[in-house]
Amino acid sequence: MTVQFSPAAGRDRFVGQAISRVDGPAKVTGLAKYAGEFAAPDLAYGVVVSSAIAKGRIKRIDAAAAEAVPGIVKVITHENRPATSQKPEDYQDAVAPPGAPFQALASDRIVYSGQPIALVVGEDFETARYAASLVRVEYETAAPLTDVTAQSGASYDPPMKRAGIKPPPEPWGDAAHAFDTSEIRVNAQYRMADEHHNPMEPHASTVVVEKDGTYTVYDKIQGVSNTHDYIAGAFGLKPEQVRVLNPYLGGGFGSGLRPQYQLFLAMLAAKDLGRSVRVTLTRDQMWSFTYRSEAIQTVALGADPSGKLTALKHDAVQGTSTYEDYQEVIVNWSGVLYDCDNVALTYSLTKLDTPTPGDMRAPGAVTGVFAIETAMDELAHATGQDPVQLRLKNYTEGDQTEDKPFGSKELKEAFRQGAERFGWDKRQPEPRSMRDGRELVGWGMATGIWESMMMQSSARAVLGADGRLEVGNQTGDIGTGTYTILTQIAADTLGLPLDHVTTKLGDTKLAQAPVAGGSWTAASSGTAVMKACRDIAEQAFKLARGMDNSPLANVDFERAVFTGGRIEVAGDPSKGVALTDILKATGTERLEATAEAAPDKDFEEAYNAYTHSAIFAEVKIDEELGVLRCTRVVSAIAAGRILNPKTARSQILGGIVMGIGSALHEESMLDHRIGRFMNHNLGEYHVPVHADIHDIDVIFVDEEDKANPLGVKGLGEIGIVGVAAAISNAVFHATGKRIRHLPITIDKIV
Ligand code: MOS
């Protein structure tokens, strides 16, 4: 299918080009402001006091010493907290899982360690922080349960399913019997670690009380619509009483999908005091909400001696909080990835005394694909197959979980190009057979997969008499390059120079759009922007045809070419008229359009849409010391049309680095005796640093997809999926030791 951006000519001048970020200069010069940086007259500062216990209740909380500090405005605790909505559903944001969302300072009950128990509001941040250290708390402590392994026996099938999260498919064939009678069997348990998102920008909210009594809220969120509706619901405000902005995000990775407690507390204090308030969380408080919770996974594969799968079982038990049934897709991927006649997939939850886990980059897929792709490597070894050949042998052209073909799937080509770039054909199959001096060398590979989604979204475009175009909607650019790709799409659709287009995002005054998540933003907002601009193109064309002596008088819209700020006739560029002249001649001040984009129902009926990747990794391991370096990664991505190879590559690079973190570094350590994440800082929670990152090569495989008119499938998440398995498989190849529990640290290697 041909994708046309300009109404007639299909001329893509900017789409497909490696355009640098249009928001780059604002971000590197400090012009870009973040939620905790907006100022207001008479701004007060709130500092959160966090619970020292994980479970129990507050017997006594004494804020007298804090309140006595000069410059302290108020200390809010559960004892004097102003009333907010009593209905749990008013706190359920757009992406909330089933359950009763956490409400800060609602009662004396403690449900997780680090839970906010007081807000100390002061004239300045330092004073508030000092006074917060003076709040005295007596607790009645109960024994917390935070060990997913110990609790896995108490797992349950969540009664309410989370919207947008597919439960495991019904089993097909007879996996148990087929496994028992298979000639080759692989059966093992796989574990990751709890991981926390740590975007550069910690969570922060600035609530500005306007003179007319309305609120302007700057919130660290991946989509302002979610904050807006949450605030209006929780505080019983009319929609027009709240405006939410978040033009820039210092990283999200899913941590900014749901409104968090600092927003609630800032709003609570601002409304109560009638004064603007900012609440910024500290780095260690970033461990007090949302995380990628560990799952206990078992994968059982049965195969014939040639490596053809005869049975596939994948079971996962994942931790959630006591108050919400957080759910993600962990096991389904195994059924989507491979052709097998006997498949059984199960997923259940177990309650822990932790905050509710949340979406963290490729939620569920990172976890589940690590297990299935390590198991597939074990099967390759057990059957003496090359890991790529094994995957080709079990390749599927359709999604067996729903009996639908894929809209597109160029995974075979990704395997081919990735293997070629990596030099996979030089791999010696035997573990411990490749060396570089004193280092063992391991080459491993894995497949990655993520669902390609689109959400209902709108966008507005305004073309001014000066020929400048403004487009935008409420969604957030979470660092992925959304400003840039929307600018490219708009410029191409109306044939404008790039610098004539301004894209605005992250403001509830703009056109409706959902949070930026799920890798759906390019498809959703991109299509909406294109449609709004096309609407303007049609309006301009109509006006042009009606002009005196119009060169377009007898031309059909299909033959009009929008280029260089003009409408020209295809094949006869001398015939044309500038957009500015059209508006001037017709006395038009501006042309405006708002367009809606929604998933294509016919497409969704007929096809399932996924992105895929083939990841090849090299590790070098010092044999004596066990020191491991991931020296090379090649990732070949099949994700439909690439709007901007530069921002696209950056997304994949970031995903791979995060995957290296997941494989080798990241681990939030719970002390189960006190139910607390102990390494709640970036000194002890390790993420890859520059010295950990070596060669990374990203390939985009040609793939034509028709799920949306842009042909895009999303890139924010596919980059991380499967990376940990590729690395753990490389570690096995290097050492002969199979490590099924991430992160792979030195103690596990030696
Ligand atoms: Mo993503 S985890 O949907 O921000």
TrEMBL record:
<dbReference type="InterPro" id="IPR008274">
    <property type="entry name" value="AldOxase/xan_DH_MoCoBD1"/>
</dbReference>
<dbReference type="Pfam" id="PF02738">
    <property type="entry name" value="MoCoBD_1"/>
</dbReference>
<dbReference type="InterPro" id="IPR000674">
    <property type="entry name" value="Ald_Oxase/Xan_DH_a/b"/>
</dbReference>
<feature type="domain" description="Aldehyde oxidase/xanthine dehydrogenase a/b hammerhead">
    <location>
        <begin position="29"/>
        <end position="143"/>
    </location>
</feature>
<dbReference type="InterPro" id="IPR036856">
    <property type="entry name" value="Ald_Oxase/Xan_DH_a/b_sf"/>
</dbReference>
<dbReference type="Pfam" id="PF01315">
    <property type="entry name" value="Ald_Xan_dh_C"/>
</dbReference>
<protein>
    <submittedName>
        <fullName>Aldehyde oxidoreductase molybdenum-binding subunit PaoC</fullName>
    </submittedName>
</protein>
<dbReference type="Pfam" id="PF20256">
    <property type="entry name" value="MoCoBD_2"/>
</dbReference>
<feature type="region of interest" description="Disordered">
    <location>
        <begin position="79"/>
        <end position="98"/>
    </location>
</feature>
<dbReference type="InterPro" id="IPR016208">
    <property type="entry name" value="Ald_Oxase/xanthine_DH-like"/>
</dbReference>
<dbReference type="InterPro" id="IPR046867">
    <property type="entry name" value="AldOxase/xan_DH_MoCoBD2"/>
</dbReference>
<dbReference type="InterPro" id="IPR037165">
    <property type="entry name" value="AldOxase/xan_DH_Mopterin-bd_sf"/>
</dbReference>
